[in-house]
Amino acid sequence: MTESEYSITLPSNTMKVGSYTFKVTNKGQFAHNLTVDGPGVKDKATPTLSLGSSGDVTVNLRQGTYEFYCSIDSHKDKGMDDKVQVS
User: Fold this and answer.
1) What pLDDT, in 10s, does the model give residues 11-39?
2) What region does 52 belong to: left with phi over 0, alpha with psi -120 to 50, or beta?
3) What's the CA gap between 71 and 69, in Å, rounded?
4) Beta-ladder partners of 69
5) Of 20, 36, 45, 78, which sits most exposed with the smallest number of CB within 10 A?
6) All domains in the chain, ordered by first residue
7) Predicted TM-score of the model (pTM)
């Protein structure tokens, strides 16, 4: 996955139930992270990633809708927010 100002590129907006490790690379100019919220997951995030750095976050996804977003400053409000449907 990649992040930049102000977008998140996900592999898909639909996934199957299971455990996932997302490797996130910051291709933007500002610090970013990837935070996941949804059924059974609350504020699970990568470390804050500086320009060019990468980090991982592992989550167990259950059936339902998850929000993938950057929790730094107002990045979420600027468009770094996406929904993923898990079935």
Assistant:
1) 899 999 999 999 999 999 999 999 999 99
2) left
3) 6
4) 35, 81
5) 78
6) 2-86 (2.60.40.420)
7) 0.95
